[in-house]
Write a structure and sequence with these properties.
By secondary structure, the chain is α/β, with parallel strands linked by helices. The chain has a single domain, classed as TIM Barrel. The protein has 17 helices and nine strands. The strands form two sheets. It has a seven-stranded parallel beta sheet. Bound molecules: coproporphyrinogen III.
């Protein structure tokens, strides 16, 4: 059993830092594109446990990374609460129905009632654990309540997420009710992921950075805190993208690992987060378009910057789909061959 990821997450001694990439399962891999091309769409992949299992393991076989992350999406949560999503090729997610007013929030399902509908995810986790047979740990995940709420209001990606931010100002009470419903669903969902076999849980707050510090403290952190306090069985990673202003507060959460994006350098991340957490990150995904020597040097510098204990090597956000596979391998191999 390669348990480097779990040991690093718990702050135990490791021979070298573990490495995996956010969005490692996906279009960077030819075997993913081949399978995806035969299917009706993204949702068929997500909702068929055998297929989700297959693409979850592809990067472990191809790249030799130290972790698998279950193939799914953060948008399955709003779907079981009552707002289904579509994945438009080349464009991204789209919600035919969105939250327009406060009363729309009352009609949403939450907690167990919503989470039981995600049986296909739990089956995919069970199957993947069986197939991995201990080769590497399996990461489960969910979106942070604020990030999920942003999609439920906006209905798609957005440059400004102004509909979502407007709602916080105009409907603060409904905002809190909605965030609590998403939180209750997410806790039930993650507990079932752990029961199915997830070895570590990552919370993605991808849109953390569009909130100001006060709003982040009011509308995001308290809900992430509830999730961290509820998931006691396995290590938890919190990745609040672009929320450098909140790194001190994230460092106070009851989590084990803090994800860092490339806007914060390793020394500053360590001093803001404090000594007790493991850090994960933070190579600029665009660095993987550089020459191999540049990638190798930057990877070594990054490891020296973070230190090789209490550290998990990753990018500062998901790998871009058109990244040359050979460059991804240069990055991973540099870590696999690292010795302090
Ligand atoms: O390897 C992995 O990381 C596991 C799978 C995974 C996906 N989505 C699959 C996916 C994970 C962890 C996610 C999380 C996710 N989904 C986040 C948080 C992480 C982040 O990137 O900030 C967010 C914001 C989403 C919502 C989402 N899903 C968007 C905005 C898009 C479109 C952009 C894109 O990358 O195409 C998706 C689609 C999506 N989710 C794809 C994959 C592999 C591409 C779909 C395809 O195959 O065409």
């Amino acid at each position: 059993m390669n348990d480097l990821l779990l040991r690093a997450a718990r702050g135990e001694q490791v021979e070298r830092p573990p490495v995996w990439l956010m969005r490692q399962a996906g279009r960077i891999l030819p075997q993913y594109r081949a399978l995806r091309g035969k299917l009706s769409g993204f949702k068929e992949l997500v909702e068929t446990p055998e297929l989700a299992c297959e693409v979850t393991i592809q990067p472990v076989d191809e790249l030799n990374v130290d972790a698998a992350i279950i193939f799914s999406d953060i948008l399955v949560v709003p779907e079981v609460m009552g707002l289904s999503y579509e994945m438009i090729p080349g464009k991204g997610p789209m919600f035919p129905m969105t939250i327009q007013q406060g009363s729309d929030v009352d009609n949403l399902l939450s907690g167990e009632q919503a989470a039981v509908q995600l049986d296909y995810v739990y089956k995919a986790i069970e199957l993947t654990k069986q197939e991995l047979a201990g080769r590497v740990p399996l990461i489960g995940f969910a979106g942070a309540p604020w990030t999920v709420m942003a999609y439920m209001l906006e209905g798609s990606g957005s440059k400004t997420f102004s509909k979502a931010r407007r709602f916080l100002y105009r409907q603060p009470i409904a905002s809190r009710v909605l965030l609590q419903k998403i939180t209750d669903t997410t806790i039930a969902y993650l507990k079932k992921q752990v029961k199915a076999g997830a070895d570590l849980i990552q919370i993605f707050d991808s849109w953390a950075g569009i909130l100001g510090p006060e709003q982040y403290a009011e509308f995001s952190l308290p809900y992430i805190r509830q999730i961290c306090e509820a998931i006691t069985e396995v290590p938890v990673t919190v990745f609040a993208k672009n929320a450098w202003f909140a790194l001190d507060a994230v460092g106070q959460l009851d989590c084990d690992v803090v994800g860092i994006d490339w806007n914060t350098n390793p020394a500053e991340a360590r001093s803001r987060v404090g000594a007790s957490k493991t850090l994960q990150g933070n190579l600029d995904p665009c660095l993987l378009y550089a020459e191999p020597e540049t990638i190798q040097q930057a990877t070594r510098d990054m490891i020296e910057g973070f230190g090789h204990q209490q550290y998990i090597v990753n990018l500062g956000h998901g790998v871009y789909p058109d990244t040359p596979l050979d460059n991804v391998k240069v990055f991973v191999n540099e870590v696999l061959s690292y010795s302090s």
